[in-house]
Amino acid sequence: MTTYDWTLNGSGNWATAADWSPAGAPTSGSNVVIDTSGVYTVTFSTGTVAINSLSVQNDNFTLSGGSLTVSDGASFADALTQSGGTLAFGVSFANYFYGAYTETAGTLSLGQNASLGIDDGGSASASAFVVAAGALLDFNGANFTITGGNFTGVAGTLEVSAGELELGSHSVTIANYDGDGGDLDGTGTVTITGAAILNGDTETGSRTTVLEGTTTLDGDVYLDGGRVLENKGTMNRTGGGYIYLGYPNQIGATLENAAGGTFDIQSAVEVYL
User: Any idea where the domains of the chain sit in the sequence?
Assistant: First the structure.
């Protein structure tokens, strides 16, 4: 399996053969390393390429067109910008955006059982995240905003483990949700059809979160901004901590157990109004 190293100590285009060692743009099945002595930008703009791995260690990466598939893991240490094309990650491998991810057009796709952690925030304004069943999309750092009209749901698991995920007015359907210390914000309806874990979770904005599967409340949960948390499945209170209705902004919130729902209190719980 060939490893291609970016040799130009400057910005350039992926398709320029002379900027790689060995000479020639990376071919299918190869490993790719981009690591200059400065902070430059490498742009993928055309063609269809499926590589084994991609490591962008000290530079920015831009996808403006074409299709780039990474089957065995990718990492981006600095900014990743997508203005078109398709960036796809294969099954069963972990991928990390350590820098900010900014998307204005195109598609970012996670295959079955793949995972993606976005550490440094960013925004997506035009296209969908395509998250297959069994895949994990984790917002685990700075704030991230989704403002475009095409983000309608996640077939796998959505996790907000740090920072804030701002969904605006989107109505979103999520197969599984893990709110582990982050903030899910916005005004549209969020429907979680499968398992949900709320542990240190904060939900703000005048939206309704509908829980249709099995939900575990473990640790503090914060609801505010007119948020309605509606249980239609089974909600289990398993750990200590508090449920805050109207915190931190004192605007108010509602915890509702709908007809047919079960709220199973398995440990002491205190509700602050």
Answer: 37-272
